[in-house]
Write a structure and sequence with these properties.
Layout (H helix, E strand, L loop, with lengths): L4 E12 L5 E11 L8 E7 H13 L22 H18 L3 H4 L2 H8 L4 H8 L7 H7 L8 H11 L7 E7 L6 E8 H17 L7
Family: Belongs to the sorting nexin family.
Protein name: Putative sorting nexin-10
GO cellular component, one term: endosome
């Protein structure tokens, strides 16, 4: 049975480092049933320069003999206030991801997985892929998205809202769907299994040390 990898680039936002410096980043949503991915659904934000970095890293991989697809060209007159330019760039970035994710060799690249399913900076992606961090690639992917839980109490509140704690029924969790305009619900795990898995991810995240080993 053919495995599916669906990816969308959406929701451009202007981010400001300070009063004088700003950039646009984009949300990358991924939905897949492929065994190549640690998470079957994920959402991260990346900027154009990070896409450029990813392409360079993949191209430098000696196993990737074929030429990679091009990114939308860098426009010296690109304006963050020009909706058409942003839309065209966003479409080009999405098409780039769709094409590279068709390659089994790209799907085996750790940097690609960290780019799509973690919130690490590019420097930490390089360090993690090279084994110079205290956390693995899988741990980095699993911890992404757990930062919003500042305490176990916060996490338990969310679990309480998602699940009926009075019975061991299937847990109905609302997730972002295959397009920005839809949501999907899945009933995949029993309540106990779901709680144990989420709490395990929470504890794993808070036990990680982000310090890069020298």
């Amino acid at each position: 049975m053919q495995q599916v990898v669906c990816v969308w680039v959406r929701d451009p936002r202007i981010q400001k480092n300070d009063f004088w410096h700003a950039y646009v980043d984009y949300e990358i949503c991924l939905h897949t049933d492929s065994v190549c991915f640690t998470k079957k659904m994920s959402s991260v934000r990346r900027r154009y320069s990070e896409f450029v970095w990813l392409r360079q890293k993949l191209q430098a991989n000696s196993l990737l003999m074929a030429q990679l697809p091009e990114l939308p060209p860098k426009n010296p007159f690109f304006s963050m206030n020009n909706a058409q330019q942003i839309s065209e760039r966003m479409s080009g970035l999405q098409e780039f991801l769709k094409q590279i994710l068709q390659s089994p060799l790209v799907l085996s690249d750790s940097c690609m997985h960290l780019f799509l399913q973690s919130d690490l900076s590019v420097s930490k992606i390089e360090a993690c892929a090279a084994g110079r961090t205290r956390f693995s690639v899988t741990q980095a992917v699993r911890r992404c998205g757990l930062r919003r839980f500042h305490s176990e109490e916060d996490l338990q509140k969310v679990l309480g809202m998602c699940c009926d704690s009075d019975s061991d029924r299937y847990c109905n969790v609302t997730l972002w769907g295959p397009s920005p305009l839809h949501k999907v619900s899945r009933c995949t795990e029993s309540l106990v299994t779901y709680k144990h898995r989420v709490l395990s991810d929470y504890y794993s995240y808070h036990s990680l040390n982000d310090t890069i080993l020298l």
